[in-house]
Write a structure and sequence with these properties.
Distance between the termini: 25 Å
Radius of gyration: 28 Å
Number of strands: 3
Helix content: over 70%
Number of helices: 14
Order of helices and strands: HHHHHEEEHHHHHHHHH
Shape: elongated
């Protein structure tokens, strides 16, 4: 546990430094899935490591030890974590959980607001045209999702560019990109180190939709012009999530004017190996923590048996009962 419990922290730092750069150079669809898996695994690893470190401090509180029937002295003798580290981990874990709760409430409110906006749009077709001169175009997820485009945006684009814009927004709805965004926002709220992955993920989703639109339209240059013209027309206007003008537009245009990104497997294999190591290290740390608690329980049982020998009356009332229950539980686990 001395080393393995810190491996998820190191893995998160490595991903934060390397994943954003690699994801922008890879094929966007697998890159988005890889970032989502990495964010989820690292968020769980972050929480698990903090919980294990916090437990080593909380378990040494006499009242907690009494409820758990383990020896504080034995636990301190085997515990390799400094109390300051355990205390800081407890506070960080509490702050992370509160931050996750706040982010979850915001996401729920956003879902409710989005559904109300969908219900308030005119018509029942996929495309909803707003009578507004401000250039806007974005995907509005819901049941069903809608593509919202203003008349001001339509006037800025030619026929081919309009088709590319609609294909881009349709790709957002078809691939349910809003679920990726919610996952990244929640994991970044739980673990602040994952915020670069969330920012990169938003860009990768736009690139994913660009590539889908290029495949449907059949001309990458047309999609590049649509993205560029839409961004220039909507400069200074608000940019909703899953908008065609989202992300770093110059980088998106350059990627569309270049050949499609080649499929590479080595970065994904390296990332999968890193995630596997983090999961294995966390499992090993949890196993060590469980073994440490069992050892502290056996020490407490031995102490109670010694007290029972010195004081038969008290021992009969307190010591043997607890020890017998603990030993029976251990024998039952071994048989299972």
């Amino acid at each position: 546990m001395l080393i393995s419990v810190y491996v998820p922290f190191a893995g998160t730092a490595v991903l934060t430094l390397l994943a954003p750069r690699l994801a922008r150079r890879l094929s966007p669809r697998p890159a988005a899935w890889a970032l989502a898996c990495a964010a989820l695994v690292m968020a769980v690893g972050w929480t698990g490591s903090l919980a294990l470190l916090a437990f080593t401090g909380i378990a040494q509180i006499p009242q907690v030890a009494a409820e758990g029937h383990w020896s504080v002295t034995a636990l301190r003798a085997e515990d390799p974590v400094y109390f300051v580290v355990a205390a800081v981990s407890t506070w960080v874990l509490a702050a992370s959980v509160v931050s996750l709760g706040v982010a979850a409430v915001r996401q729920v409110r956003q879902v409710v607001r989005t559904r109300r906006e969908c219900a308030g749009l005119r018509g029942r077709t996929e495309l909803a045209v707003l009578d507004d001169d401000v250039p806007l175009a974005f995907a509005l997820p819901g049941r069903p999702g809608r593509i919202v485009v203003s008349r001001g945006m339509l006037r800025c684009l030619g026929d081919e560019e309009r088709a590319a814009l609609l294909a881009h927004e349709r790709a957002h709805l078809r691939a349910r990109h809003h679920l990726f965004l919610r996952l990244w926002r929640l994991t970044a709220a739980l673990n602040p180190l994952l915020r670069p992955l969330a920012d990169t993920g938003a860009f990768v989703l736009e690139r994913w939709a660009d590539e889908e639109a290029a495949a449907q339209v059949g001309d990458r240059a047309v999609v590049a012009r649509a993205v560029g013209h839409a961004a220039l027309a909507s400069a200074g206007a608000p940019r909703p999530a899953l908008a065609v003008t989202g992300g770093e537009v110059p980088q998106r245009v350059r990627a569309l004017l270049a050949p499609p990104p080649a499929r590479r497997s080595l970065p994904f294999l390296a990332g999968a190996l890193l995630l596997t190591v983090c999961c294995a290290s966390l499992a090993n740390a949890a196993s060590d923590s469980d073994r440490m608690v069992d050892s502290a329980k056996r020490a407490q049982c031995a102490a109670l048996m010694g007290t029972a020998s010195a004081s038969p009356v008290d021992g009969h009332r307190h010591g043997p009962g607890l020890c017998c229950r603990h030993q029976r539980g251990e024998r039952g686990e071994h048989r299972a």
